[in-house]
Amino acid sequence: MNQASEAQVQKTLVQTPEAQRLLHRRALRRATIALGLVAALGLFLLWLPSTSRNLLVSSLFANRLLIALLGVFGLIAISLLWAAGQRLDVWLFTALNLRGYHAIWMDRLMWVATQIGNVGFAAALVVTAYVLGDQRLAIDLVLGSLTLWLLVTIIKAITDRARPFNLLRETRVIGWREAGLSFPSGHTTQIFFMATLAISHFQLPLIVALGLYAIAALVGFTRIYLGVHYPRDVIAGAILGLIWGGLGVLVAPYLLS
Questions:
Q1: What is the C-alpha to C-alpha distance for residues 142 and 236, in angstroms, rounded to an integer?
Q2: Closest Cα to residue 213, out of 231, 239, 235, 191?
Q3: DSSP secondary structure letters along 201-249
Q4: What span, in angstroms and rounded, lies between the C-alpha atoms of 252 and 257?
Q5: Where are the beta strands (DSSP E) in the chain?
Q6: pTM for this structure?
Q7: Tens digit of pLDDT for each residue in 26-58?
Q8: How many whole angstroms separate alpha carbon 236 and alpha carbon 233?
Q9: CB 186 within 8 A of CB 233
């Protein structure tokens, strides 16, 4: 089915009462999730002691970089509604996923590299940190990863974006076709969060920090190469991981003794 006929079919489906009810239910679900997220954030701030809450809010507003990153993430999320943004996303995805050099050894290397951003790798780091006696890092990783996983799940439910292989027939998928939604990339979010947390925790020099972020960027690239995410999913995931890592540094002193 070509793009024109596909668009016509989707237009016809949207005009049916059943499709309209489905769209309304999805809109209601997204609004409910968004309100729940706002309510949870409000309850968390109320739970904090007033002194800690005031210091935390002051720290957040004083950190202009986090505010700027949050604004960029919001713009990327809003851009999902733009047809021009989708066309650019598809063009970039096709260029990285289908064109260029794709040898078998490279496919395997990319599949291995992408595992650095999964939950199993994060769990291995937690166990390693705990065994080596760095309980603070282990706790930060557990709390940060669990809350980040919850946040990514909520954002995926709100944006409700299908993975590229569900819409683009020519997609080159390496490995299995992962279930779930596409925006943002969970692997990319996780690896950028862990990199940011490690840099802050160990006070790493600039050259090492750049190396960690290079590895994180590689993981993000693998998500497009493997055919499971669009470029905007990866960019948004990287920004969200940076934000969550920065917030973890600010919040941890108020939660852990």
A1: 22
A2: 191
A3: HHT--HHHHHHHHHHHHHHHHHHHHTTS--HHHHHHHHHHHHHHHHHHH
A4: 9
A5: none
A6: 0.77
A7: 556 656 666 666 676 667 667 766 766 666 566
A8: 5
A9: no
